[in-house]
Amino acid sequence: MQILQLTSAKRMIEQKTHEVTVDIVIFTIRNGSLDVLLVQRGHEPFKNKWAIPGGFVRLSENLEEAAKRVLYEKTHVKDVYLEQLYTFGDPHRYPSARVITVSYVALIRSDDLILSSEEGLNIQQISWHPVYKLPALAFDHQAIVSYALKRLKARLEYTPIAFQLLPKKFTLTELQKTYESILNHDLDKRNFRKKIVSLDILNEHEEFTKESSKRPARLYSFNEISIEGRKGLMTAQ
What we know:
By secondary structure, this protein is of the alpha+beta class. The chain has two domains: 2-154, Nucleoside Triphosphate Pyrophosphohydrolase (Alpha-Beta Complex), CATH 3.90.79; 161-230, Orthogonal Bundle (Arc Repressor Mutant, subunit A), CATH 1.10.10.10. The protein is 28% helix and 26% strand. It is built from six helices and nine strands. Strands 1, 2, 3, 4, 5, 6 and 7 form a seven-stranded mixed β-sheet that branches. It has a two-stranded antiparallel ribbon with strand order 8-9. Strand 1 (19-30) and strand 2 (33-41) form a beta hairpin. The longest helix has 14 residues, at 141-154.
């Protein structure tokens, strides 16, 4: 009889519904470094730990709506293109409940962003952190960031990802440094330029940098028509 009761109780626990959250990985380039946006938690679990912005999905919203809402509430970042990355569902990823999270990723320019959060969210700080020198993160967020970075690097060969990180007009040196920041190693200048030119995704302008130097660098921009069909940065093959 006791065995039957225990089996019945276990079955009831196994049949409990799961909570669903969204977590957002936001990458940018700052001072030659690939950075990710983190928030410092002000409550348990993982109080004082850094984490990627995330939160629970409401009954009235779909996943994308939840991701955009959570991102804005916690960082005041909005109007960015979020792409669904992967679903993380390890039974032990959340210490006190069964929580499945759907992760999103985006690349943005950080120059004009003013980071802040809504009141009452118990967030201590919001800041950018170099992705290759991250502090210890809450939950399984290290695994989520690592997955996003791996997917990002895998897309460099055939996807013009830098259009979301660079200004409208840029030099080839700036473009190369962006790729180097993502890959975390140097690239051969000659081979890189040959590869980029062969992709036929750049517009060459009769404009040059205004820095005081003997050889001002030519400015380029991305050809919007050429890259239109290649903007899916993180979609799996």
